[in-house]
Amino acid sequence: MERFGKPERIRSDNGPEFISQALPDWCKDQTIELCWIEPGKPTQNAYIERFNGTFRREVLDAHIFASIRQVRQTVAVWLVEYNTERPHQALQFMTPVEYRQVA
């Protein structure tokens, strides 16, 4: 939030990591709307579902990791490419970095 500002809302699924009251309390304290995805409706969060699929195919399924260090290095390299070199259709075929500079 310090770098990009506070979001207006956070969309989340109902996964087990979100069953505590901590997230709703924090969002309320920050005046951030918390939007829950209906169970069985992953298309309500299509952007993250698309990212998860891409990440799974291009990183997790494409490599056999020997250590946590190797995972971290591979993910770091992939994230740089994903955010600075790869155009995204949802961003009018700009990279996220280019889109952020225009927005």
- Name the strands of the widest sheet in spatial order: 1-2
**Count of individual helical segments:** 4
Element pattern in H and E? EHEHHH
Helix-strand makeup class? mainly alpha
Helix content: 40-55%
Radius of gyration: 16 Å
The overall pLDDT, averaged over residues, is: 88
Major beta sheet summary: 2 strands, parallel
Number of strands: 2
Characterize the structure shown.
This protein has a two-stranded parallel sheet with strand order 1-2. The model has no long low-confidence stretch (mean pLDDT 88). It contains 4 helices and 2 strands; from the N terminus they run E-H-E-H-H-H. The chain is 47% helix and 8% strand. It is globular. It starts with 8 loop residues before the first strand and ends with a helix. The chain is mainly alpha-helical and 103 residues long. It has helices at residues 22-30, 46-60, 68-84, 96-102, and strands at residues 9-12, 33-36.
Briefly summarize what is shown.
With 103 residues, this protein is mainly alpha-helical. Helices cover 47% and strands 8% of the residues.
SSE blueprint and pairings:
Layout: E1 9-12, H1 22-30, E2 33-36, H2 46-60, H3 68-84, H4 96-102
Parallel strand pairs: 1-2
